[in-house]
């Protein structure tokens, strides 16, 4: 018999809503490579409007959206400046170097937010010896920093400095709606300083597939060609866009529930001796530190798995737990109870 799992590995595991499934079945579609899919067009326009940009592009994943942005903003051999824990650098299979031909210039940060002073030090003056720096990237919310939200004033300051230094600015906004909800700001405000923004439909917003990239019309024209180059031109993609439209318009309102559950999960887990939560839980990600000497990430992940609880280790002593649409208050309490029991036995 299939056992019911509490899957906290990622918000990417969310199942589409009933409304999404109905909208997908009924979607009006056409060949999007010919620009003839009305539902895709509607999604792209809706995303652009929501994020305050001229145009949008549906892509198959966040990874593809970021890579398409890199390709459209830069030339091979350019330098891209980003934080050392950026998803684009850490988790995207090296596409920035292998496919876009870029040299990453990494900056160490505590919380994903590069300061204007750090940027000044990283950007070198024009010199025949140096690869030209052409792009600056940030990530909001920041995945490896534990779903933290970049303070908007700090973002404004560093992106404005990037512009003065002649760089384009791209935002990996895979979870931008979580950041907007947390700050009580319109998503367009968070997107405003950037030339391009990628937002995922398939994480906390629960669409089955897809991300959107937005920017100026001229940028999106180049991005569309880059998407084709990567084999990402999709045909009757309105089937996916129909779910994406619901993700963008109906799902953000409930993200605060995920945030509250993550906070409760963090509080409950850190009350267990031997466990600590790294930083402040702001959105839907909890990074747990396993301090008890007899335990480590691998052992706790395995013990949880035996209880039907899934989570991902991110280092030998750190585990990431993500709340989402399929995680209820009862699940959160069940995880806290089971952990207390398991760890109690471990001493
Ligand atoms: N992140 C995934 C894994 O790749 C780690 C996850 O489970 O969190 N930007 C950010 C900030 C992301 O967190 C992710 C996905 C992406 C981009 C890439 O999106 P996909 O998975 O759609 O390619």
Furnish the topology, listing elements before pairings.
Layout: E1 6-7, H1 18-26, H2 38-50, E2 55-59, H3 62-73, E3 79-83, H4 87-90, H5 95-98, E4 103-107, H6 116-122, E5 133-139, H7 152-164, E6 168-173, H8 176-183, H9 187-191, E7 196-200, E8 211-215, H10 217-229, H11 238-249, H12 255-270, E9 275-277, E10 285-290, H13 297-306, E11 309-310, E12 312-315, E13 318-322, H14 329-346
Parallel strand pairs: 1-11, 3-4, 3-5, 5-6, 6-7
Antiparallel strand pairs: 2-8, 7-8, 9-10, 10-13, 12-13
Ligand TLP binds next to helix 3.
Structure keywords:
single chain, 347 residues, alpha/beta, Aspartate Aminotransferase, domain 1, Aspartate Aminotransferase, domain 2, 2 domains, seven-stranded mixed sheet, four-stranded antiparallel sheet, 14 helices, 13 strands, binds ligand TLP
Tell me what the structure shows.
By secondary structure, this protein is an alpha/beta fold. It has two domains: 99 residues, Aspartate Aminotransferase, domain 1 (Alpha-Beta Complex); 233 residues, Type I PLP-dependent aspartate aminotransferase-like (Major domain) (Aspartate Aminotransferase, domain 2), CATH 3.40.640. It is built from 14 helices and 13 strands. The radius of gyration is 21 Å and the shape is globular. 48% of the residues are buried. The structure holds ligand TLP. The site of ligand TLP has 14 residues, from helix 3.
């Amino acid at each position: 018999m299939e056992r019911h799992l509490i899957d906290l590995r990622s918000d990417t595991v969310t199942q589409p809503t009933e409304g999404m499934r109905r909208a997908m079945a009924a979607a009006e579609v056409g060949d999007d490579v010919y620009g003839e899919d009305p539902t895709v067009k509607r999604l792209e326009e809706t995303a652009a409007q929501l994020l305050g940009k001229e145009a949008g592009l549906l892509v198959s994943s966040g990874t593809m959206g970021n890579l398409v942005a890199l390709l459209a903003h830069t030339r091979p051999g350019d330098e891209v400046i980003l934080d050392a824990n950026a998803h684009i650098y850490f988790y995207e299979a090296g596409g920035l170097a292998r496919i876009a031909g870029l040299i990453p210039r990494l900056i160490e940060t505590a919380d994903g937010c590069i300061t204007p002073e750090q940027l000044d030090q990283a950007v070198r003056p024009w010199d025949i010896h140096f690869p030209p720096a052409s792009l600056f990237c940030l990530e909001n919310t920041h995945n490896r920093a534990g779903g933290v939200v970049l303070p908007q004033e700090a973002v404004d300051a560093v992106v404005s400095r990037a512009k003065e230094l002649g760089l384009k600015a791209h935002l990996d906004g895979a979870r931008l709606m979580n950041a907007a909800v947390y700050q009580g700001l319109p998503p367009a405000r968070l997107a405003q300083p950037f030339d391009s923004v990628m937002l995922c439909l398939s994480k906390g917003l629960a669409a089955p597939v897809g991300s959107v990239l937005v920017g100026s019309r001229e940028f999106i024209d180049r991005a569309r060609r880059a998407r084709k180059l990567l084999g990402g031109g999709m045909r009757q993609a309105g089937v996916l866009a129909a779910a994406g439209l619901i993700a963008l318009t109906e799902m953000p309102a409930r993200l605060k529930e995920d945030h509250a559950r993550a906070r409760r999960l963090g509080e409950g887990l850190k009350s267990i001796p031997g466990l600590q939560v790294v930083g402040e839980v702001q959105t839907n990600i909890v990074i747990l530190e396993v301090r008890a000497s007899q335990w480590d990430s691998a052992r706790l992940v395995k013990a949880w798995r035996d209880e039907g609880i899934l989570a991902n280790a991110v280092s030998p002593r750190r585990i990431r737990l993500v709340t989402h649409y399929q995680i209820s208050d009862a699940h959160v309490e069940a995880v806290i109870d089971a952990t207390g029991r398991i760890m109690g036995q471990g001493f």
